[in-house]
Amino acid sequence: MADESKIQNPKSKIQLMLYYFLYQIIFKQYGAASESYIFKGLNVIQYVTFRTAWATITALLISLLFGGKVIKKLSALKVGQEIREELSHEHQAKKGTPTMGGVLILGAVFLSTMLWARLDSLYLWLALGATVSFGVIGFWDDYIKIVKKRSLGLTGKQKLLGQLITALIVWGCLYWVANYPWNVSIPFFKATAISNYPDSVTWIYSLPYLVFIIFVLLGSSNAVNLTDGMDGLASSVTFIAMSALTALTYVASDRRWADYLDLTHKPEAAELTVFCGAMVGASLGFLWYNAPPAEVFMGDVGSLAIGGALGTVAILTKQEFLLPFIGGVFIIEAFSVMIQVGYFKYTKRSTGIGKRIFRQAPLHHHFQMLDWKEPKIVFRFVIIAILFALLSLSTLKLR
């Protein structure tokens, strides 16, 4: 693999934490002229791949070390999961299991990113802001469920309104603050990777792109939310999808790889690789406690935040059309609900009797109604998620 691009002469005063302390202060002042291997070794801090690896490890360790304490605190606060009445007896037995465990994921991602990323990156703050914003929407949804002791929290319109506002803020930052190119990069067509107007064949301008951003962010956040319905399902699929997105983000931010693979080069997205690595570590650490039988559920605060993070990073790195490959399981789950609801409404309107294609939606509940055991469903969905992730990576050479 080619060497990573080096970070040169950062000037911002907000570059804090480990990168700034270990590289900017200690290495540059002492390491470069020192004979000590310890000081000289700090030179690796400048490499994005090194910091991504340690962001992943740090987020994983934070999740593992604080997961038990978070579960005990949620249990003490009686933050228990409410279960829909139509779900199986297997699910009814999970009633009262601590939920809102997504705060552990958010905390691990935020702390790890703060420690290892360069904090002068606008794209990094956009990703963190969007993730937290979607997490806040999910938090209120979970909170209402717990307080009112029901399986439904915010209404659909309230949840969509919050997601829409977040999408508008992301677009606004790209429009007024970032030098964001309004072209669509389509896999398999290298001509679409050109991002300079008027050379780009897929330049669609800022307002049409707003509609695109809304579709991507709302679609990805709700797709992950629908997938979160079995022990370990959403967290394991997130780990796989985020691992693939980490690799894609890195190659898009490195000019040598972007030019070689005919991708839209996004140097501003380099620090997003660190953020994605933190998401990988946090989701894997959460899976330690969420594996069947789950000790805690992520709740909407986790699932909406993860979906928002996936969508935001895809937008910032011009990988929107790869999302169906990266998160194929999420897309399948979302489509199963859309098909079920659409077919039910159509048959009820045309025949007076609503009919269903699946025994229950989302799709994982359909297999559960077929008497598949929950661990088998989760493992098979994980296998499918791995296939989708490999497919997304394989598209890099199909241009």
* Strand percent estimate: under 5%
Report on the biggest sheet: none
How many helices in DSSP terms?
16
Counting helices, strands and paired strands, the structural category is mainly alpha
Overview of the molecule:
Helix content is 65%, strand content 0%. The protein has 399 residues and is mainly alpha-helical. The two termini are 20 Å apart. α5 packs parallel to α12, α6 packs antiparallel against α12 and α9 packs parallel to α16. The chain has a domain of 276 residues.
Would you summarize the structure shown here?
This protein has 399 residues and is mostly helical. It contains 16 helices and no strands.
